[in-house]
Structures are given as structure tokens and as C-alpha cells.
């Protein structure tokens, strides 16, 4: 697991090279409020880890192996959704919350591992990630930021490297939330897909999943990404 090549010099974000994020999944959601997409992470041949708020609508399709969503080649695999499991303490009716916003999706069929489709490693329980540790996140559908800045939505997978932010600063950044959660991993301000994977490099050079993205907007903090 976690075998891929990432550019260590990325700071402001750049196009990802083919096969650099082989666990990246796209979730096509067809809900009552229209169609949209979230990110996810492949953790084995049939299961995807994502954010719970991404599956509050009707589950539709999983896309794996894609780097450019506008030009999908033979390396791309699509699967339906056979089952989903949301955190028992997450409530879609109450709206988006930062705590317990996690879910698992079981695909209709297992996938075959290829150069472009590989699982990510999972961080061990009770792992600690200190301030300044370099982490990576990726996504193609960062439309919220592009809409607010007047840009165009990218279809090619983007990747960015940012340092982990310490607990004290993280708590300060999220004072708008009355119920600050117990075990966050925060990054500096950036844009990415909700449900997308956040990874760090282990001493074995494998990449390990330490969190999933959460996108939140409010008048006082603007667009923020919590993990």
C-alpha cells in the first residue's frame, strides 16, 4: 500500500503526474440538489474511505485511476455503490459538522490493482503528527475556490504540499464552531475535494492516510479546509 511518487517541492499546487495518486477516488453523487462530486481514498480492493456528508444524498458512482476527468483513458475504472457505512454519530439532518464526518463505501465489484489504481496505507491508531510535518492533499474539483476567484474549474488532478498545523492554532482557527472536535489534524488554508485523502510519508517511503478533507464556508471564516 501507499506506493506512489509525489513531488517534494510542491508548495502552491500543481498538476499531478500520472499514477502519483493511485488511491484517489471520485464520487459522483446524484442528489436532490443536483449532481456534484467528492473525493475519496481507496483502502483495499472494494472499499473507499470518504467524508460522511458526501453520501448524505443518493449514492451513484465511483471513479478510480483518473487523472484528467475530461479525458478518461483505459486506465480508468468505474464502479457502482453496493453498500455504505456512515459514522453512527454523524447526522445528515443536522448539517455538516467537523466531528464524526467519515464514511466507508463498498463498491459493487472489487478492482484489480494497476499502476494507476493502488490502495493507500492507513495511519496506525493513536498516531501523532507534530506541527510542521509535511503532508499532501489532492483533488480535481476545487470549484468553490475557482468560482469565488473567477477562475475556471480544473479537470486535471491537482496536488499540494502543506505543513500540519498544531492543535492550539487549529483551535483558534475554528472558534466559529461551538463543538470543536477532539482529534483534528489541521493544515494551512487550501482548497481541495471534500472527502479527499490527506497523506504523509512514512520512514519506509510509503504514503499513509492520516485524514480526509472537509470543506466549510461561513461569513466570518470564509472557505476553510479541516481534516
From TrEMBL:
Q: Which Gene Ontology MF annotations are present?
A: serine-type endopeptidase activity
Cite the entry's keywords alphabetically: Disulfide bond, Hydrolase, Protease, Serine protease
Cite the Peptidase S1 domain residue spans from the record: 10-218
Q: Name one GO biological process term.
A: proteolysis
Against Pfam families, the record matches this protein to: Trypsin (PF00089)
InterPro entries attached here?
A: Peptidase_S1_PA (IPR009003), Peptidase_S1_PA_chymotrypsin (IPR043504), Peptidase_S1A (IPR001314), Trypsin_dom (IPR001254), TRYPSIN_HIS (IPR018114), TRYPSIN_SER (IPR033116)
What is the protein name stated in its UniProt record? Peptidase S1 domain-containing protein
- Residues of the signal peptide: none
Per the UniProt record, the lineage of the source organism begins with: Eukaryota, Metazoa, Chordata, Craniata, Vertebrata
| Protein's organism | Neogobius melanostomus (round goby)
User: What CDD domains does the record point to?
Assistant: Tryp_SPc
Query: What domain of life does the UniProt record list for this protein's source?
Result: Eukaryota
Amino acid at each position: 500500500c501507499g506506493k506512489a511518487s509525489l513531488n517534494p517541492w510542491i508548495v502552491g499546487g500543481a498538476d499531478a503526474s500520472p499514477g502519483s495518486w493511485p488511491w484517489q477516488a471520485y464520487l459522483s453523487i446524484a442528489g436532490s440538489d443536483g449532481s456534484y462530486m467528492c473525493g475519496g481514498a481507496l483502502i483495499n480492493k472494494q472499499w473507499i474511505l470518504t467524508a460522511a456528508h458526501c453520501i448524505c444524498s443518493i449514492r451513484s458512482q465511483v471513479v478510480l485511476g483518473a487523472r484528467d476527468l475530461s479525458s478518461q483513458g483505459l486506465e480508468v475504472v468505474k464502479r457502482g455503490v453496493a453498500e455504505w457505512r456512515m459514522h453512527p454519530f454523524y447526522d445528515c439532518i443536522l448539517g455538516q459538522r467537523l466531528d464524526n464526518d467519515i464514511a466507508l463505501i463498498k463498491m459493487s465489484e472489487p478492482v484489480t490493482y494497476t499502476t494507476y489504481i493502488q490502495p493507500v496505507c492507513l495511519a496506525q491508531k493513536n498516531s501523532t503528527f507534530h506541527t510542521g510535518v509535511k503532508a499532501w492533499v489532492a483533488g480535481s474539483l476545487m470549484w468553490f475556490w475557482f468560482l469565488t476567484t473567477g477562475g475556471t474549474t480544473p479537470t486535471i488532478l491537482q496536488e499540494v504540499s502543506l505543513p500540519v498545523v498544531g492543535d492550539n492554532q487549529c483551535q483558534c482557527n475554528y472558534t466559529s464552531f461551538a463543538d470543536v472536535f477532539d482529534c483534528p489534524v489541521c493544515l494551512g488554508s487550501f482548497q481541495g475535494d471534500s472527502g479527499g485523502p490527506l497523506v504523509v510519508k512514512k520512514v519506509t517511503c510509503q504514503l499513509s492516510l492520516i485524514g480526509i478533507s472537509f470543506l466549510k464556508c461561513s461569513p466570518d471564516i470564509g472557505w476553510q479546509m479541516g481534516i
